[in-house]
Amino acid sequence: MNRIFEKYISCKSCLKLFSILLFVLCTTVAFAQNEPRTILDFNKDWRFYLGDEAKAKIITFNDSDWRTLNLPHDWSIEGQFSKHHLSTTQEGALPTGIGWYRKAFTVSTSAKGKAVFIEFDGIYRNSEVWINGHSLGIRPYGYSSFRYELSTYLKFGREKNVLAVRVDNSAQPNSRWYTGSGIYRNVRLVTTSQIAVNQWGTFVTTPTVTSQKAVIALQTSIRKAVGRTSKGELPTIRLVSTILDAAGKEVATQTTQSVRLIDTLITVSQQVDVSNPILWSVEKPYLYKLVTRIYNQNRLEDRYETPLGIRSFKFDPATGFSLNGQPMKILGVCLHHDLGALGAAVNRRAMQRQLELLKAMGCNAIRTAHNPPAPEFLDLCDEMGFLVMDEAFDMWKKKKSKQDYGLTWDTWHKTDLEDMVRRDRNHPSIFIWSIGNEIREQFDSTGITIANELASIVKTLDTTRPVTSALTENIPDKNFIYRSGALDILGFNYKHEAYADFPKTFPNQVVLASETGSSLQTRGHYDMPSDSVRMWGKGGPTKFTDGNPDWTASAYDNEAAYWGSTHEQTWKVIKKLPHMAGLFIWTGFDYLGEPHPYPWPARSSYFGILDLAGFPKDVYYLYQSEWTNKPVLHIFPHWNWPKGKTVDVWAYYNQADEVELFLNDKSLGVQKKTGDELHVMWRVKYEPGTLKAVSRKNGREVLIRTMSTAGKPAKIQLIADRTALNADGKDLSFITVNVLDEQGNLIPDANHLITFSVNGGGTLVGVDNGYQASLESFKANYRKVYNGKCLAIIQTNEKAGRIRVKATSEGLQGAEIELVSQ
Ligand code: GAL
């Protein structure tokens, strides 16, 4: 597709190629003339300047000494942590400020008469975009997707066009978590003819779904940028909508003849039936595709694709949620948008890895806390089978941080909310719209008017999904958003003690736990006794000096923020209450910012089930044992302690009725979960050696796990999540680095400095170790392991080839791994 597009647009650097590839391009050009719509990845070769430069919008501005880079780009993640940055530790303590991006390109004369748009999936924040010196618009909200039409300002032929983008993330603080800064999501250049499907112009719903038949309702919004024909007539088009199955076979089609384009925008409704539909579900996320074609006489004016999943779902106040008629619990996590060491810069593979790890844990739903995600994230959820609560805002008019979105609320909230719903409403994964998180207007009467306004904005665009808002106030009379009556579903954050009474407190209301937990853990760190719980805040420690001097939290599930609970406390309750439709745990992964309860140098959160590098904390296996059918037996902590110390050994297990623990082949007894227990524990006097756990069902062994005392650190081990990669300049391999003893046991407290070198077709783009108070740069070519582990992220170049990754450290045997990029 990109190559085709070079007929219309050729980037400066592509010009040289143009003459070399003349033959190839000629053939492509002929083909391109019949292409009604072209979508060009417009991420490459931008110039970037960190700082303000008023003249940079002018076309003749000389940017030759600016840095050249590819988007998506987040300049904050490239910086160093400092407590002197304007962005607080709440926001990750990385630099913010103002930045400029410029891109020069030429447009072939054959694009004259076409409609050309630049599409941004998201710029954090306060962006203004210019084409050839003309301002196209501003966009304050950093999470909205938007496009501008360039057509009338473009120059054709050899003349240069320049896009300039100013990004202003200097007003701080404007968030309660790390946001990133810059054009951190994808950019495309889209060319259509003057009669085309409008932006996000299809809307597909499935009003009737049975195993015999699905009725598919289609609405297509068609944009006409031309007036009358040469004969003075209004253009008349034919709309053909075709449903293809996953193999690309046509299963239904509907043609509407003679549509007169009386206005610049008209909407055409159609309906088709699909017989014996294969339903979309979280276990089997089957996707159809809608192909929309617009013909003017016999000329194809547009061809547009929309993914389609056929499914039905229902919420019931007494029995919770069902998908395609099957009752199920929503087993969800909340996620912020950062990708650890990659920051906010969107990368499809990095998001896919996160979702793979969550899927393997049994998670089936995501809440996009607290803003619309990147569109690719939703594509992945469609493809991988996750339900999504798509959330618009963390605040309404009443601010949470001094400089946040509340300041622009009056002017922008309608546009931002409408754009979110229009952009996202075709994703089968999305099943709830959330209009806000812990909104301050809960507590005064403005909550009534605003909630009603927002719900009606959503309903105007989509009535097929319920609207919720994540609430904290669970006394009905005191909650003005609840009293507005605008919510179809009541989402409550925390308050697990109140869940059982919800049917009485909120009769006939659908209720779910929109946020739970906020338990605190550092991977591989254990505070004992494990059965005493440290609740930070009211009733527990209030000063961070009451915590650990190395800013760690305990990875036994025994530490939490006072407004939350341990993982077990909440899951135990929800599991048993059918009226609780499900939960969204705070959070799936640690994220940058909000390092509660610690101040600087802590700079990322402790709430994740997996750490910032994506390494599971022990509690991951609690959920895996409860939420999947995989046999699980997980024992922890590690087995390196001072001799004689009393150590609590925990096991999460399933598909067994007991676990027996042995130390150096001596039985320490059999334990069984009783009542609503979710783990078993042995209190053991430590001696070095080997712990062995055996789970049994009806006396037959199910699983065996062993763990031995590690000796001296001896060697580095590298494990790549994928060794065969795409040479597309985007694909990633996530390489786990372990420090082991001679026998291959992980050294549980190793903190060696590892240095990386990468040769061949790839680049090191990020390093991390998941430690919340590490101040090392994510972009360095070295990293200390933390509790035995660190991570290196390798990105392919566009040139195929082998990639050799080498890791060395003083006093350890180094390691090498080979990746193949093609
Ligand atoms: C919630 C809030 C989240 C996060 C969390 C930390 O109250 O909705 O955004 O701040 O607390 O525990």
From TrEMBL:
Residues 205-311 form the Glycoside hydrolase family 2 immunoglobulin-like beta-sandwich domain. The keyword ATP-binding does not apply. Residues 96-192 form the Glycosyl hydrolases family 2 sugar binding domain. One of its GO terms (biological process) is carbohydrate metabolic process. SUPFAM superfamilies: (Trans)glycosidases (SSF51445), beta-Galactosidase/glucuronidase domain (SSF49303), Galactose-binding domain-like (SSF49785), Invasin/intimin cell-adhesion fragments (SSF49373). Keywords: Glycosidase, Hydrolase, Signal. Residues 716-818 form the Glycoside hydrolase family domain. Residues 1-32 form the signal peptide. Gene3D superfamilies: Galactose-binding domain-like, Glycosidases, Immunoglobulins. GO terms for molecular function: hydrolase activity, hydrolyzing O-glycosyl compounds. Pfam families: DUF4982 (PF16355), Glyco_hydro2_C5 (PF18565), Glyco_hydro_2 (PF00703), Glyco_hydro_2_C (PF02836), Glyco_hydro_2_N (PF02837). Residues 644-702 form the DUF4982 domain. InterPro entries: Beta-gal/glucu_dom_sf (IPR036156), DUF4982 (IPR032311), Galactose-bd-like_sf (IPR008979), GalB-like (IPR048229), GH (IPR017853), GH2_Domain-Containing (IPR051913), Glyco_hydro2_dom5 (IPR040605), Glyco_hydro_2 (IPR006101). Residues 321-471 form the Glycoside hydrolase family 2 catalytic domain. Belongs to the glycosyl hydrolase 2 family. This is Glycoside hydrolase family 2. It comes from Spirosoma telluris. The lineage of its organism: Bacteria, Pseudomonadati, Bacteroidota, Cytophagia, Cytophagales.
